[in-house]
Amino acid sequence: MEKRYEEFAYVLDFLQHGRPSARPGYRAGALVQVIGEEFFTLLEAVVKEGIFIKPYERVYVGKESRFKITYILGRISYDELTSTAKMELPGVIEKIVRDREKLFVNFFNSTQAITPRMHALELIPGIGKKYMWQIINERERVPFKNFDDLQQRANIPNPAKLVAKRILEELAGDSKYRLFTRAQ
Fold first, then answer.
1. Would you say the pTM of this structure is higher than 0.85?
2. Which of 2, 4, 82, 134 lies 20 to 30 Å from 62, alpha-carbon distance?
């Protein structure tokens, strides 16, 4: 299987003077902590000299010529995020989920049981058996068109926020199953 990388990421924190507790053999300079928009990969990258980047800014982190990023230092875990990055993370994840609404609505339209006793929908915070059956019954009649349609017909609160909470749980390592992220 071909290894796939993030093309774009959203900035969670801009560390103008790098990390105070830098890794051994590490060059000083401006860093960013970002989250990829496709696989929700947490990355740390070196910023080109003289460039300032704001939280929530979308930056190119792909393999071709990068405009603002010099190079990717590598993947980081949730625990390695700065407190600022952790604070920004829920809002940035929700923005990505809303921007990729079609993909996540498709998840609600097509996801199946994981085990004979558990459905993938039940892994979404706030969705128990009752909401799971409402979603399944409604999607069998007519697939959901968007988050608003899902919210109204299945009577669930803010689907984008619920999906974002699930992604955050997966990134924090609080979950046995991964629906939306890759293992760190």
1. yes
2. 82
